[in-house]
Known about the structure:
Two copies of one chain form a homodimer.
Chain A: H1 4-17, H2 30-36, H3 41-53, E1 57-60, E2 64-67, E3 74-76, H4 83-88, H5 96-100, E4 110-118, H6 121-127, E5 134-144, E6 147-156, H7 158-161, H8 178-185, E7 190-200, H9 204-209, E8 218-227, E9 232-241, E10 245-252
Parallel strand pairs in A: 3-10
Antiparallel strand pairs in A: 1-2, 4-5, 5-6, 6-9, 7-8, 8-9
Helix pairs in contact in A: 1-3
Chain A binds a DNA duplex (19 and 19 nucleotides) through residues 1, 3-5, 29-31, 34, 39-43, 45-46, 48-49, 59-65.
Amino acid sequence: MKPKWRELAEKFEEEIRTGERAPGSPMPEIRDLVEKGERSKETVHKAYKALEAQGLVTSSRGRGTVVREHVPLKRLGIARYDKAKWRDGDEVAFIADRVASGRSYLRGEQTQTVSEVEAPPLVARAHGIPEGARVYARARLVKEGDQPTHSLTSYYRPEHVEGTRLVDPGPGPAGKGGGFRVLYDAGYEIDHMTEELRARVPSAEEIQLLQLHPGEWVVELHRTTCTADGTVVEFAIGVHAATRFSWSYDFKVPDSAQE
Amino acid sequence: MKPKWRELAEKFEEEIRTGERAPGSPMPEIRDLVEKGERSKETVHKAYKALEAQGLVTSSRGRGTVVREHVPLKRLGIARYDKAKWRDGDEVAFIADRVASGRSYLRGEQTQTVSEVEAPPLVARAHGIPEGARVYARARLVKEGDQPTHSLTSYYRPEHVEGTRLVDPGPGPAGKGGGFRVLYDAGYEIDHMTEELRARVPSAEEIQLLQLHPGEWVVELHRTTCTADGTVVEFAIGVHAATRFSWSYDFKVPDSAQE
DNA sequence: TAGTGGTCTAGACCACTTC
DNA sequence: AAGTGGTCTAGACCACTAA
């Protein structure tokens, strides 16, 4: 037997997907449904929470529940790291994807803080240094308008970045060309990277920071960036709202017998 | 003000993460907590559901709520497509990752059904054919023991696979070397691929099929496989339980100025 | 059959937004 | 102040498991 709250949620889901309930239009108020039907407040509430977790509606106290506008996915491909963008041009690497997808970059959409910290285990392993060694952490929160899209924290080894503008703890992006340009100017040209992705439940702080919808998951991205000789010059951890992005990778089918 | 159910959930989360509550050990029963503390049944229930969504506990009627065993992540890298594995060896490409991570392959862990269908929009676009054109859909559910890990449906164009054992609608894997080997034998050697990932809420059928825990998300993977001349010979859609996998990709930093 | 989690209700109260 | 969603309770009943 299907629970009543699920039946109700599926009924509304159908109505939203067919367009019968248009984006931006208000959903019936909980108390109205309680009066009209036989359902109780908690039951309707559960149904609405399920719809909210699927990204179909938004609820807020005082304002009511409305059908969500469709937010287009931001597609992240490896082209966003194109050397031409950060080495020759004046785009900042981290916002290259936004430029590529036709959105304009506005100043003030990225805040940054730089601090010296002891390397957590994950960071130490990536850089091949002892746990607790000193590293620079450069954390930024990337926004699009008022809406935060993801957080990104890069970890650098002191000998690679000390004396550069990367460790200048001022606010704002790292300047023309971004972090990769700074490393390039310091003699460390990035050559290849590894990205690793996994999905998980967000922490309470992340829900607040990224303004996540209730029930929404995040994708954690680990990026290890190396120079041609294999030196790791950056390890970065990104946390993305899971429904706002897709990731795409092209690669040759490997053939270990030929190498 | 933090809701009580969240407070309670965080208390238990802490206890589980520190190991104070060991995997396999039972959580306090809901009715006991109601008797001892001032909380009500629904409130404790909400807290338990939150823990379950995080993958920390498992609840079932009659059996109670227990701390979950830690399930190791399965790491998927592009090495799982190594030509040496499916062309020269006798491993099936789709289970190569399991072999790599030390798990043994058991017969009967993969079921398959082949059918001729009209190409859905996504499939048509990937193959560059009209919507509704006939394609072969090869759907399998991959399990590890009793636990399903992911579903994978490959779409092939008739002219590439007709007459091969791929479209033989018998059960079981596609045979020695898997689907890529069949394509290879038919004169279509795969050369490069694109994988695209996104996370989303599972459908009701997927929850049942993959035995997902309540609140758990899935990652949908789109794989487009091409020969050296750019012909798309396979488009596959995979649905993975989000917490059971991580994906990893290595690539050179692109440089459009040099090509 | 006893004991577990899951659903549902009716009503109270709280937090927030809008007027 | 009025009206929205969110939390909480006490208790009823249901669904499932194990002895």
